[in-house]
Amino acid sequence: MDRVQLLLVGIPLFLVCSDLINLFAPPPPPKPRPSHHHHHHPHNPPIAPETLEFPLQKPAAGRGIGYGSTININFCASCSYRGTAVTMKKMLEATFPGIDVVLANYPPALPKRILAKVVPAVQMGVIGIIMAGEQIFPMVGIVNPPQWYYSLRANRFGSMASTWLLGNFLQSFLQSSGAFEVYCNDELVYSKLKEGRFPGEIELKDLIGKKLSRSVVVDGLGDMWS
């Protein structure tokens, strides 16, 4: 083979191997999230028993309405939804000071995830047959290769490139969930899978505000408790 042929063969093989490594590599460990709920004060005097009967704690001065609440935005990472998720995260953090907004990938269904891992193996198998089918078929007991093999072999470089492109397209489709799900304190607030569209910024702000207002109690003196 000359250099052009080696390049045409090497690029698809390199990209397929990269896909395999990325698919089967273990995910990175999750980053520890700071906790806003538990603060240990070992030198504080013991609390009187009667104060434990009231479960609500008055927030310190300067804390926003979102303090202690968590918003989870689970989105389809392979659908290029990250930009929208980051925009919503910044908007919510600016609107509700003290709120914790967590972004995470929403994986597709289990059958699609399994098929997405099978696709690279099929890609490698087809490319291997195109390159060395005359040696592979006798090893599995097939004396005369099928007609489709000769069709692929007639334009093997085009066949390998088509196999790689089609496999990547199919893999991307199987890895996509199309989700953009928003949770407030583990309660579903908005679902793109149900609504079929993204939430508007004002719409999402109102939904989160209503959820947070339900967990806020205002006493008779006008002090806010959460």
TrEMBL record:
<dbReference type="GO" id="GO:0005789">
    <property type="term" value="C:endoplasmic reticulum membrane"/>
</dbReference>
<feature type="compositionally biased region" description="Basic residues">
    <location>
        <begin position="33"/>
        <end position="43"/>
    </location>
</feature>
<keyword id="KW-0732">Signal</keyword>
<dbReference type="InterPro" id="IPR019389">
    <property type="entry name" value="Selenoprotein_T"/>
</dbReference>
<dbReference type="InterPro" id="IPR036249">
    <property type="entry name" value="Thioredoxin-like_sf"/>
</dbReference>
<dbReference type="InterPro" id="IPR011893">
    <property type="entry name" value="Selenoprotein_Rdx-typ"/>
</dbReference>
<dbReference type="Pfam" id="PF10262">
    <property type="entry name" value="Rdx"/>
</dbReference>
<keyword id="KW-0676">Redox-active center</keyword>
<feature type="region of interest" description="Disordered">
    <location>
        <begin position="28"/>
        <end position="51"/>
    </location>
</feature>
<dbReference type="GO" id="GO:0004791">
    <property type="term" value="F:thioredoxin-disulfide reductase (NADPH) activity"/>
</dbReference>
<protein>
    <submittedName>
        <fullName>Rdx domain-containing protein</fullName>
    </submittedName>
</protein>
<dbReference type="GO" id="GO:0045454">
    <property type="term" value="P:cell redox homeostasis"/>
</dbReference>
<feature type="signal peptide">
    <location>
        <begin position="1"/>
        <end position="18"/>
    </location>
</feature>
